[in-house]
Amino acid sequence: xxAMTVPLRAVxxxxxALVAVPFxxxxxxxxxxxxxxxxxxxxxxxxxxxxxxxxxxLRFTYAGDPSRVSTLFKNEGTVPWINPGIDIEGGxxxxxxxxxxxxRTKGAAxxxxxxxxxxxxxxxxxxxVNLTAQFPKxxxxxxxxxxxxxxxxxxxxxxxxxxxxxxxxxxxxxxIDTDFGKVVMEFYKDLAPFHVKNFIDLVNQDFYNGLLFHRxxxxxxxxxxxxxxxxxxxxxxxxxxxxxxxxxxxxxIAQVRNSLTGADESGSIFMIAATAQPDMxxxxxxxARVVEGLDTVKxxxxxxxxxxxxxxxxxxxxxxxxxxxxxxxxxxxxx
Length: 335
Fold this sequence. Notes:
By secondary structure, the chain is mainly β.
């Protein structure tokens, strides 16, 4: 995309409009020292002051999709900033999780004439760069460190994640590994498509690994998937319900609604029913069911709990850790 000059208000509105939470580097400011004043003249106090910010468009990128990074430049000084011809694309480097630098392709020359020659005080310009076009290996699953720098500007760094692409045409299973055994679940992808995709995407980001089943209703339900270990945790968003008429039967997995989500449901907290819960029918989105390991679910649901007024004891006396959740394709039935 071409470079552009945009007002502050437009940038803020665009940022607030993003549904997914982006990963952003801490902004940096590069202040040019004032030039020496002629002899006898007062020292110059005004100078251009360049603010630089980079961020990814989304929380993650699917393997094979473009990985885009937004760059933003603002003159926070009191006099115009003269653009020396910053090479925005050329300022990027990408490193894999082992610290190896990804090879850059030899692309077409950058047309720097599309950038403004100077920035007035409080003026912006920016550009969206497709890093995958420059670094093809960035299209592979993994965690990457992205840096950007230019002469006279401190280095910017951010992390980005590339995950396996969800395919709605495929049948998946999830395997939850706990200290008490494994639980295998299958999905109602046609009845709760957004919840299924959201859960699988979170698993492919390793979101649930190391979290807890933090709450039990003795013998009946277990709740897990909160990064804070209580009902306050979330991935940064909630989910609108997907009413589908499925009942909360033994082994059902549903998304949780609580006092913090309002009419929506948590983006990550889920519950597994050890017994039927008819009072919850049509009140939560059922998106999966246990096909192996219901005995493990019941064992966890019957653990001793601790707690005190005003709340009923509901926290397992010993932490029940979700060691890992893995997604695998369901094997076709024989015959």
